[in-house]
Amino acid sequence: MSVVDFARFVDELAALSGQAILPFFRAAFITEDKSTGQAPFDPVTEADRAGEAAMRQLIRRTFPSHGILGEEFGSEHEDAEYVWVLDPIDGTRGFIAGLPLWGTLIGLTRDGVPCYGLMHQPFLGERFSGDGRTAQYRGPHGTRRLLTRRRSALSEAIVATTDPRLFGEGREREAYGRIEAATRLTRFGTDCYAYCMLAAGQIDLVIEAGLKPYDIVALIPVIEGAGGVVTTWDGGSAANGGTIVAAGDRRLHEAALALLNA
User: Fold this and answer.
1) Which keywords does this Swiss-Prot/TrEMBL entry list (predicted)?
2) In whole angstroms, what is the distance from residue 251 CA to residue 249 CA?
3) Would you place residue 7 in the very low, low, confident or very high pLDDT band (cuts 50, 70, 90)?
4) Mean pLDDT on 43-55
5) Which tens digits make up the pLDDT trace of 165-219?
6) How far, in Å, CA of 201 to CA of 148, rounded?
7) Could you tell me which CATH class the domain 3-145 is placed in?
8) Spatial distance between the Cα atoms of 139 and 14, rounded to a whole number of angstroms
9) Most buried of 59, 89, 231, 250, CB within 10 angstroms?
10) Distance CA 2, CA 7 (A)
């Protein structure tokens, strides 16, 4: 099956998950804490589960030989050639606060390598997609190709991270602090939206820690397709999560890596 055909199917998944999730947004719903009281707060809602369940059902029916890895319901057939990597609501904290800085992440790997990804923000009607070679925005304001911004100096960069408290005490937090001190402007609480704004040329750097595969796999083909680069802090593949640095410009990525590992 071609990437084009998979793209059509991903659009179906996005529409289906959006229908399951949107009735809960800015409405009353049940929220649980997956951290079982251990900080930091790790919320999950009825909407998360409804969105992932809907996507899993369609994947199983359409591609029974494919694997699935999702945040809410775990993994199945992870050794398959194609594996779908799902996060129904990346940015659940924003979701429960009524803020539209969240999205549904739908990623596809082939032999463990991310080959297609989409971030869908159904409330705003926006989709950011990519296959590692090109990336695209579709929304109320039309369709356009995504291109990252050329910016090499840390002193001119806009950096985003979800929450600095998510960095571990010691090395991680100190490393992030060096980046924040060296850059022009920092934004918090953006979750997956920050990576999409990086692909769109609005943000220059995203620095994160503690990510799982379902937090990043869908975003890798979007960032790379827009001309950016995303790796772990040691320069390795970001597909397994962990400590992540994404940059719109390869020179900026190199400068950020040097400072993170100083």
Assistant:
1) Hydrolase, Magnesium, Metal-binding
2) 5
3) very high
4) 90
5) 989 999 999 999 999 999 999 999 999 999 999 999 999 999 999 999 999 999 9
6) 4
7) alpha beta
8) 13
9) 89
10) 9
The residue type of 213 is P
pTM confidence score? 0.93
Among residues 160, 208, 228, 219, which one has the least CA distance to residue 188?
A: 160
Query: What backbone torsions phi and psi does residue 108 show, to the nearest 5 degrees?
Result: -135, 130
Distance CA 100, CA 121 (A): 8
Return the CATH number of the domain spanning residue range 154-260: 3.40.190.80
22's CB contacts (< 8 A; 6+ apart) are 122, 123
Amino acid (one-letter) located at 89: I
> DSSP labels for 77-130?
-TTSSEEEEEEEEETHHHHHTT-S--EEEEEEEETTEEEEEEEEETTTTEEEEE
CA distance 185 to 119: 24
Which token pair is 65? 């030989």
For residue 114, cis peptide bond before it (omega within 30 degrees of 0): no
Name the residue ranges covered by the structural domains of the chain.
Answer: 3-145, 154-260
Share of the chain above pLDDT 90, in %: 89
Which pLDDT value is given to residue 108?
Answer: 98
Q: What is the pLDDT of residue 5?
A: 77
Element holding 170 (H helix, E strand): none
Calpha distance 10→33 (Å, rounded): 29
Are 3-145 and 154-260 the same fold in CATH? no
